[in-house]
Amino acid sequence: MSSDKAVTLRINGHDETATVPSHRTLLEALRGLGHVDVKCGCEKGDCGACAVLIDGEAVDSCLTLAHSAAGREITTLQGLGTPENLHPLQLSFSELGAAQCGYCTPGMIIASESLLRKNPSPSEDELRHALSGNPCRCTGYVKIFEAVNAAAEVMRNSGDPK
For residue range 70-122, what is the model confidence (pLDDT) as tens digits? Predict the structure, then answer.
């Protein structure tokens, strides 16, 4: 008898259904549905590359069971903006050179978005703490912090929390 069950996930504003076993992680389900912007890194919650927003909060999708996300709003990097209308974080990361290899970038942007939703004017210590679960081996974080601060300013000035 198979333990596979259908689960409907609300991803980037659209319902998608996958048939997965009860032990399948959200990371595995998302990638199986073609959401390759959610990166598979350590698969144990240490790297943040797989971060997504669930109901506006950043979570490591490798530590979240797919079935536990049913009925909740899941946002991946692609759900924040479009190529024609980038989210301020996506734009600032691009313009300020905050991504080098790009592997950590989706999780870094998701963690930054989660922070800025709660705190639109974070201190440097708050920013460092919020991004501490997203290691980057390429940039040294200076450009990342500059990009988050630049996006935060744009977001504050627009009056739109997104």
Answer: 999 999 999 999 999 999 999 999 999 998 888 999 999 999 999 999 999 99
Same domain, 117 and 49: no
With vertex at residue 155, the alpha carbon angle to CA 124 and CA 97, rounded to the nearest 5 degrees, is 65
12: left (phi over 0), alpha (psi -120 to 50) or beta: left
Q: In the prediction, which pLDDT does 162 show?
A: 52
- Nearest CA among 115, 94, 87, 102 for reference residue 49: 102
- Total domains present in the chain: 2
What pLDDT sits at residue 100? 86
Question: CA-CA distance, 5 to 94, in Å (whole number)?
Answer: 40
First to last CA, the chain: 45
Same domain (yes/no): 50, 74: yes
pTM comes to: 0.93
Q: At what angle do helices 142-158 and 88-95 cross, to 10 degrees?
A: 140
